[in-house]
Amino acid sequence: MSALEMLPILGGVALGLFLSWMKPAARPRVGLPIALALAALATVASGELWVSWIFLVVDGALVAGAAAVTFLAFHRWGRARAGGELLAPHAK
């Protein structure tokens, strides 16, 4: 696996970490355009766009998925460090 194939995953991880520090209301406005730009960058850099446009969709899903997993993991890790409940926070 080459470094260019890892670009959407690494971009998604960076995006997830970046979004975890933003205010919740701003996350969709900022995250969506950045995710689309990262997907386009990864697709063009790897040369897959010239093969088929569907690679843009695949890289978009990779960026969004990696961002979501990173964001959720970072959020849960922060709650665990703060002593918050990780499972069923509203059920007591």
Describe it:
The chain has one domain (3-81). It contains three helices and no strands. It has helices spanning 3-20, 27-46, 54-81. It is elongated. The termini are far apart. 22% of the residues are buried. The model has no long low-confidence stretch (mean pLDDT 87).
Q: What value does the Rg take, in angstroms?
A: 16 Å
Helix content: over 70%
The N- and C-terminal alpha carbons lie at a distance of 46 Å
Shape: elongated
Question: Which tags fit this structure?
Answer:
3 helices; single chain; mainly alpha; 92 residues; elongated
Topology (elements, then pairings):
Elements: H1 3-20, H2 27-46, H3 54-81
Helix pairs in contact: 1-2, 1-3, 2-3
Q: Quick gist of this model?
A:
This protein has helices at 3-20, 27-46, 54-81. The protein is mainly α. It starts with a helix and ends in an 11-residue tail after the last helix.
